[in-house]
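job 3f2a | input accepted
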Amino acid sequence: MIRTQVYLPKELYQEVQLVAKKESKKSAQVVRDLLSEGLIRRKKKVTIGEAFLDLASVAVKGGPPDLSTNHDKYLYED
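job 3f2a | predicted structure (78 res):
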């Protein structure tokens, strides 16, 4: 591991301390866990532009024949 130093606002520091106490962890571990979760979530976030590019690549490969008229359905529905 690499050691680093970060300045936290008082409220955030207190929240980290509270979580650490509740979960019987060191505050450093809580910060590492939260950073990891946040970075993973950030990587998973897909922008609308990326979604359109994904749709375009499907269309080039022979996607649904109604893609141009029903693109909203394919973009926003699960």
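job 3f2a | The helical segments are 10-22, 27-44, 48-60, 71-76.
job 3f2a | closed
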